[in-house]
Amino acid sequence: MVGMNLLLTFYQGGITMKSDLRTQFLNFMTLQRFSHHTKRLYINSVKGLAKFYNQSPDTLTNDQIQDYLRYLLEDLKLSWGTCNNYFSGIVYFYKNICKWDEQNFQFPLNHALKSYPQSTAWKK
């Protein structure tokens, strides 16, 4: 049981995130020069997802992630911008730590947008 405490981070009796995944995620963001605020936001995003399912985030599916985001939007009534912040942290974790392909993520557009904004900086 002592060894288990080294591998898992606990929140009031439930598993949130394996500490080796958390350390790997923090180290990766540090090397990418993320601010302390961004690192905290991204860790809390993934931790919230893991806590919601009471599973390590590396065992979750895209459908579970979608259900969690729906829960944030519809049940908790969080704004689109707040949910986008959560989603950014979750995507960054799965792309860079779990090595998921970017096509694994399906996130609906904000209803107010017809398409994603396009930058005109590169157009001549």
Structure description:
The longest helix is centred in the middle third of the chain and has 18 residues, at 36-53. A hairpin with a 2-residue loop joins β1 and β2. The chain has one domain: Orthogonal Bundle (DNA polymerase, domain 1), CATH 1.10.150.130. The protein contains five helices and two strands; from the N terminus they run αββαααα. A two-stranded antiparallel sheet has the order 1-2. It has 124 residues and is mostly helical.
Short description:
This protein is mainly alpha-helical.
Please tag this protein with its features.
single chain; 124 residues; mainly alpha; DNA polymerase, domain 1; two-stranded antiparallel sheet; 7% strand; globular; disordered N terminus
Low-confidence stretches: 1-15, 113-117
CATH class: Mainly Alpha
**Order of helix and strand elements from N to C terminus:** HEEHHHH
SS class? mainly alpha
Radius of gyration: 16 Å
Helix content estimate: 40-55%
The CATH superfamily appears as Tyrosine recombinase, N-terminal domain
Residue-averaged pLDDT: 78
Main sheet record: 2 strands, antiparallel
Report, as a whole number of angstroms, the end-to-end distance: 63 Å
Helices and strands in order:
Elements: H1 2-7, E1 8-11, E2 14-18, H2 19-31, H3 36-53, H4 62-75, H5 80-96
Antiparallel strand pairs: 1-2
